[in-house]
Amino acid sequence: MRSRSISRRPGKVGSAVLSALVLGAGLVAPTFVALDGAGTAAHALPPGPGTRGQPAAPVALFHEDFENAPDSGPSTDLVDYVSAPDGYQYTADGEWEDPVASCNGFVLSGGNDLTGLCGDSASSQGGLRNLTDVLGQVNGSDPKANSAVAAYTSGRSYAPDQVQFATDGEVIPLPAANRFVTFSVNAAATSCWAAHPEMRFSVLAGGVETPISGGGINPCTDPRAEVVAPTQQPDSPVYYGGEFASDGSFLTSGSPVGIVMRNGSGATAGNDGAFDDIRLLDVTPQLDKAFSPKRVPVGGVSTLTFTVTNTAELAAKDGWQFTDTLPDGLVVADDANVGGTCDATTTATAGGNAVTITGGKLDAGDVSCTITVDVTSDAPRGADAPSKTFENCAANIDGVVGLDLPGCASVEFYSEPKLTLQKTSDAVAPGKPGDIVTYEVTATNSGTGDYTAEHPAIVTDDLTGVLDDAAYQSDATSDRGAVTFTDPKLRWSGALPVGESVTIRYSVELGAEGDLLVRNVAFAGEPTDKTPKCDDPTDSPTPCDAVEFPVKLTPMLVIDKTSDQADGARVGDTVHYTVKVTNVGDGPYTGGDPAAFVDDMTGVLDDADYNGDATVTDGSLTYSEPKLIWNGPLAAGEYVELRYSVTLHDGGDQSVRNVAFTGLPTDQTPECADPATSDVPCDVVKYPVKPTPVVPGVPAKPAAAGLASTGVSLGVWAGIGGGILAVGLLLTLRRVRRA
Question: Whole-prediction pTM value?
Answer without folding.
Answer: 0.66
